[in-house]
Automatic annotation (TrEMBL):
<dbReference type="InterPro" id="IPR019546">
    <property type="entry name" value="TAT_signal_bac_arc"/>
</dbReference>
<keyword id="KW-0732">Signal</keyword>
<keyword id="KW-0479">Metal-binding</keyword>
<dbReference type="Pfam" id="PF18364">
    <property type="entry name" value="Molybdopterin_N"/>
</dbReference>
<dbReference type="InterPro" id="IPR006311">
    <property type="entry name" value="TAT_signal"/>
</dbReference>
<dbReference type="Pfam" id="PF00384">
    <property type="entry name" value="Molybdopterin"/>
</dbReference>
<dbReference type="GO" id="GO:0050626">
    <property type="term" value="F:trimethylamine-N-oxide reductase (cytochrome c) activity"/>
</dbReference>
<keyword id="KW-0560">Oxidoreductase</keyword>
<dbReference type="InterPro" id="IPR009010">
    <property type="entry name" value="Asp_de-COase-like_dom_sf"/>
</dbReference>
<protein>
    <recommendedName>
        <fullName>Dimethyl sulfoxide/trimethylamine N-oxide reductase</fullName>
        <ecNumber>1.7.2.3</ecNumber>
        <ecNumber>1.8.5.3</ecNumber>
    </recommendedName>
</protein>
<feature type="binding site">
    <location>
        <position position="157"/>
    </location>
    <ligand>
        <name>Mo-bis(molybdopterin guanine dinucleotide)</name>
    </ligand>
</feature>
<feature type="binding site">
    <location>
        <position position="779"/>
    </location>
    <ligand>
        <name>Mo-bis(molybdopterin guanine dinucleotide)</name>
    </ligand>
</feature>
<feature type="binding site">
    <location>
        <position position="552"/>
    </location>
    <ligand>
        <name>Mo-bis(molybdopterin guanine dinucleotide)</name>
    </ligand>
</feature>
<dbReference type="GO" id="GO:0043546">
    <property type="term" value="F:molybdopterin cofactor binding"/>
</dbReference>
<dbReference type="Pfam" id="PF01568">
    <property type="entry name" value="Molydop_binding"/>
</dbReference>
<comment type="function">
    <text>Catalyzes the reduction of dimethyl sulfoxide (DMSO) and trimethylamine N-oxide (TMAO) to dimethyl sulfide (DMS) and trimethylamine, respectively. The terminal DMSO reductase can also use various sulfoxides and N-oxide compounds as terminal electron acceptor in addition to DMSO and TMAO.</text>
</comment>
<dbReference type="InterPro" id="IPR006657">
    <property type="entry name" value="MoPterin_dinucl-bd_dom"/>
</dbReference>
Length: 824
């Protein structure tokens, strides 16, 4: 399948003004062209170049040095509909053109007039001036306050590529500079990745799933619980193979049962003709308990499995039956909370017990208060069903992510640039590098409370006193919760430095903004398929850097030079030498495993090397060896078994994370007694963006409503408020207020609205906490607390609010234009 995308969308810069600008730059001597083109160039300026991105492999057509169209790779089983935005991201008006410094900062120094952050009053400076400023400020803060005063645990989805990995490059430079404060965890699976090792002995969320062909052949009931794989499998952390779609399409053809348990009728529910079980948000644990209670009272549970493969069911049972707290967790009890009729809950229990059932859990339900409980209870439910380790049965926490379940090819694993610290095995973003580390989502709490003690997974620590933050490859003013609290907290910093290629809400808040290249303006190398490992791709440079953009590698090398560490940073290797070193190491691995790979030059010329999928990978069943022999193949838990009760967690003594799965009211819930606001805000990941990436492109025109982020609202809720489809609405609670465009629909449960994460924050009064946001950033409404003392994950899916038709003067959305002075 080929998808051609014409460049009619990308009109940010006309070719003429682009040439004029480049010529002017050259003449002004701001930066020589040789500095702009680090490493090798694409073969010839014009023609077709194959490269890759978070959205897949594609071929770009270049004319006159400009990318004019892109088309998905013809072997991509399901190209992402977001590709036109990828093309537009290169030339969109939000592109950062030059190094810029906030005026007050430039004139008066670190910490000056912090309330002007976000107002867009930037001054253009030369690269030399900008790099000197950054290097001097790192030295000042390290000298006066020590490495624990610099937060460089910069989180975000950056771009793929084993060399131009901006986050790792930042850590690498900061390690050479003397150290920094890093982060632990991520926003994706903050709760799950901490609880799962206690329960299953492993991260679970970033691991290969029982292969799709096995599911297609054996699974009778496929349950997507808080998961929307048709939406989320579009993208990968590396370059996606989209193999998950082949699995889902094949399953669909069998006509077997698919159930989606979600407050929204998802893309997956529609594509797979699934039964939609509409559950109240934040109540899945109650619903699962209701199913578990039915299984137990109707003797449908698998006691043999519980006896052989799990520990602690006996301690959980009194809670389930209500002996320990006086509340039996019956289907009726559950129904009151989760809104699913008791009969339906019982029917699901009987169905799951009588059929080979795969519980495919997504992550929305753990990105909320007490989020640890959801997956723990799901594992408990799967244990009672007793199908874990059987072909097509059990549970899986990554079918919706990066095409989990697409069988793994026999291929070597590419290494990449390192940060000089220790990496946690299996998850490069869990680097332990740094002077200290905080649970990522506690960043604002840290900025507000230097010296405050915090709990995390059985440890106690204190927050450092941060003076400077350095961000690359992420958009915290999109991804973090409670925007207004955050705007205020970031004003405490002396210095905030950001590299990006777009004027994101975060870049606008910075003191020093450095223009990075997109991955289409540099050469790199990457694996295709996070789990499938289907190929290694040459991510070839498509065009020369636009305006004055430079690669993060180049920028950090220049700063390292000013810190006297250039050689340590570059190891005297240029771009192509690095890429060759990663490839050669992979080839060495391959040789040992008798896998054929061409030499580097041939690979680079061909652009891709593909690997074959062995039959055993297509037959892979997660936990089959554990099931065969739990003594010989124990889990990594203290007991070697699935821990329905965890003695380790019991020892921690946390009031918000007891020692077995437990239903606890979240801090706020629309349907709870005394709830202050009537609607739950579901901040589901966007269908037509990757978080905030591509929000600044013309792709927005395909989904925005009245020029704003769509706010999906049920017909009844809309009628009650006199809201019609297409109206501008104000969504508000005590934490914030945003405008959005009403999308009236019956594909969402009454009492729930959807405002997708990643919408760019466009405050009407920048710098002022509480300002109305004109575009629709849902994180103006969300709560900024940890999931619990155990994981301290973010609660991006915890928020209640109300909606009204907006009748005031419509404020302009300004965030999609470059700040004044940055666009000439
Ligand atoms: N309410 C709520 N909030 C959420 C979520 C939710 O469900 N609800 N989801 C959370 C989740 S799971 C995640 S992962 C986060 C995502 O949060 P982020 O990962 O911060 O979001 P992205 O939009 O991917 O931001 C990546 C940024 O990196 C920039 N970038 C890309 N390539 C490069 C490069 O080579 N160099 C430089 N310097 N910059 C580059 C992009 O332009 C973009 O601005 O959001 C979290 N926030
Ligand atoms: N198109 C696209 N794909 C992506 C991303 C993207 O931004 N865009 N981001 C990528 C990243 S970084 C990640 S972490 C993953 C995210 O993967 P997920 O975290 O699984 O994605 P979400 O959309 O946040 O949530 C999935 C579903 O959970 C539902 N949900 C929310 N709250 C509840 C609840 O309380 N109960 C139940 N049962 N359902 C609930 C939402 O309505 C949504 O349909 O996706 C990845 N894929
Ligand atoms: Mo994520």
């Amino acid at each position: 399948m080929t998808m051609m995308i014409k460049n009619t969308l990308a009109s940010g810069v006309s070719r003429r003004s682009f040439l004029k600008t480049s010529a002017m730059l050259g003449a002004a001597g701001l930066v020589g062209p040789s500095l702009l083109t680090f490493g090798a160039r694409a073969e010839g300026a014009d023609g077709e170049v194959m490269t890759g991105s978070h959205w897949g492999i594609f071929k770009a057509k270049v004319e006159g040095g400009r990318a004019v169209s892109i088309a998905a790779w013809d072997k991509d089983p399901k190209p992402s509909h977001q590709l036109p935005g990828v093309l537009d991201s290169i030339y969109s008006p939000t592109r950062i053109r030059y190094p810029m410094v906030r005026r007050a900062y430039l004139e008066k120094g670190p910490g000056a007039e912090p309330e002007t952050r976000g107002k867009g009053d930037f001054v253009r400076v030369s690269w030399d001036q900008a790099l000197d400023l950054v290097a001097k400020e790192i030295q000042r803060v390290e000298k006066d306050h020590g490495p624990a005063a610099i937060f460089a645990g910069s989180y975000g989805w950056k771009s793929p590529g084993k060399l131009h990995n901006c986050r790792t490059l930042l850590s690498r430079m900061m390690n050479l500079a003397g150290g920094f404060v890093n982060h632990i965890g991520d926003y994706s699976t903050g709760a799950a990745q901490v609880i799962m090792p206690h329960v299953m002995g492993t991260l679970e969320v970033y691991e290969q799933q029982t292969a799709w062909p096995v599911v297609v052949d054996n699974t009778e009931v496929l349950v997507f619980w808080s998961a929307d794989p048709y939406k989320t499998n579009q993208i990968g952390w590396v370059i996606p193979d989209h193999g998950g779609f082949e699995g889902m399409e094949a399953f669909k053809k069998t006509g077997k049962t698919v159930i989606c348990i979600d407050p929204i009728r998802t893309e997956t529910a529609k594509e797979m003709n699934a039964e939609w079980v509409a559950v109240q948000p934040q109540t899945d644990v109650a619903m699962m308990l209701g199913i578990a209670h039915t299984l137990y009272t109707e003797k449908l549970h698998n006691q043999d499995f519980l006896d052989t493969y799990t520990t602690g069911f006996d301690k959980f049972l009194p809670y389930l039956m209500g002996e320990s707290d006086g509340t039996p967790k019956t289907a009726e009890w559950a129904s009151e909370i989760c809104g699913v009729p008791a009969d339906k809950i019982k029917e699901l229990a009987r169905l799951f017990a009588s059929k080979r059932t795969m519980l495919a859990g997504g992550w929305g339900m753990q990105r909320q208060h007490h989020g640890e409980q959801a997956h723990w209870m799901m594992v408990t439910l799967a244990s009672m069903l007793g199908q874990i380790g059987e072909p097509g049965g059990g549970f899986g926490l990554s079918y919706h992510y990066a095409n989990g379940g697409a069988p793994s090819a026999d291929s070597p694993v590419l290494s990449g640039i390192t940060d000089g610290g220790k990496a946690v095995k299996g998850a490069e973003w869990l680097s332990t590098s740094g002077a200290a580390a905080i649970p990522l989502a506690r960043i604002v709490d840290m900025l507000e409370n230097p010296g405050k003690e915090f709990d995390f997974n059985g440890t106690k620590n204190t927050y450092p006193d941060i003076k400077m933050a350095y961000w690359v490859g992420g958009n915290p003013f999109a991804h973090h919760q409670d925007r207004n609290r955050m705007v205020k907290a970031f004003q405490k910093l002396d210095t905030f430095i950001v590299h990006d290629f777009q004027w994101t809400p975060t870049a606008r808040q910075a003191d020093i903004v450095l223009p990075a290249t997109t991955s289409y303006e540099r050469n790199d190398i990457e694996q295709v398929g996070d789990y499938a490992l289907k190929a290694i791709l040459a991510m070839k440079k498509v065009i020369d850097p636009v305006y004055e953009a430079r690669s993060d590698f180049d920028i950090f090398a220049e700063i390292s030079k000013r810190l006297g560490k250039e050689k340590e940073f570059t190891e005297d290797k240029d771009e192509m030498a690095w890429l060759k070193s990663f490839y050669d190491a992979a080839q060495e691995q391959a040789k040992q495993r008798q896998i054929d790979m061409p030499d580097f030059d041939t690979f680079w010329k061909d652009g891709i090397v593909e690997f074959s999928v062995p039959d055993e990978a297509k037959a892979y069943v997660r936990y089959s060896t554990f099931r065969e022999d739990p003594l010989l193949n124990p889990l990594g838990t203290p007991s070697g078994l699935i821990e329905i009760f965890s003695s380790n967690i019991e020892k921690m003594g946390y009031d918000d994370c007891p020692a077995h799965p437990t239903w606890m009211e979240p801090v706020e819930r629309a349907n709870a007694k005394g709830a202050k606001f009537p609607l739950h805000v579901d901040t589901a990941h966007p269908i037509s963006r990757l978080h905030s990436q591509l929000c600044g492109t013309k792709l927005r025109e395909t989904y925005s409503v009245a020029g704003r982020e769509p706010c999906m609202i049920n017909t009844k809720d809309a009628e009650k408020r006199g809201i019609a489809d297409g109206d501008v609405v104000r969504v508000f609670n005590d934490r914030g207020q945003v405008l959005a465009g009403a999308l009236v629909s019956d594909d969402i449960l009454p009492g729930v609205i959807r405002l997708s994460e990643g919408a760019w924050y466009s405050p009407v009064e920048p710098g002022k906490p509480g300002s109305l946001d004109a575009y629709g950033d849902p994180n103006c409404l969300t709560v900024d607390i940890g999931t619990s003392k155990l994981a301290q994950g973010n609660c991006g899916h915890t928020a209640i609010a109300d909606v009204e038709k907006f009748t005031g003067d419509l404020p302009k959305v300004t965030v999609f234009e470059a700040p004044a002075g940055a666009a000439e």
